[in-house]
Amino acid sequence: MSPSQEQSVYEQLNDILGLRGLITAAVNIFDHDVEQLMQRVFRKTDFAVKSVVDSLLGSTGPLADLSVRLKVLLGLGVLATETYHDIEHYLALKVRLNNESKEYALSSTLTLEFLRQLHSVADKTILQKIENDLQTAATGVQDNKDSLLLQVKTLRSEKILRSCLLLSVNTICEQLHIESPL
Fold first, then answer.
1. CA atoms of 44 and 51, how far apart (whole Å)
2. Which backbone phi and psi does 87 adopt, to 5 degrees?
3. How many helices (H) and strands (E) would you count in the chain?
4. Cα 60 to Cα 110: distance, rounded to the nearest angstrom
5. Which of 5, 19, 125, 179 has the largest CB neighbor count within 10 A?
6. Top-level CATH class of 3-177?
7. Can you supply a Gene Ontology BP term from the record (predicted)?
8. Mean of the pLDDT values across residues 88-112?
9. Could you write out the three-class secondary structure of 63-83?
10. Which sequence spans correspond to the domains of the chain?
């Protein structure tokens, strides 16, 4: 991945505050990158082949859906199984968040559970430390929800979890920016 592409991913996600917004933006980035990968894999110069491939990949074609495209790329061996599963986890979380009216904080247990499932998050020990910090802070200040200690630990945890999400998206995007092996 070139530095400009990397900056683009970070720039697209940097100003988004909530979990729902981050996940939605990440899925949009994956959709774009998978589209570009599909174009590289199925790039053909022969008019007959090109017209068939274009109709399959078009917005109304059977390969228009991101999940279907991922399965095709996985089946062809272009996409690693871990990358496939990570993107599927992002898609599932996006659907869940869109079906719920509740807004989740980045420091929620949902975020921690989600990040634990991802192959693109290399250091899972940091997630356990964050969970322990949040539990300790919450139990130590149950009587005072406005505690400065709780606020500081929550803010610190949100920044770390945001960084984990951004690194995960960037790692997945790097794996999508490959040349066609076919």
1. 9
2. -65, -40
3. 8, 0
4. 34
5. 19
6. mainly alpha
7. negative regulation of DNA-templated transcription
8. 93
9. CCCHHHHHHHHHHCCCCCHHH
10. 3-177
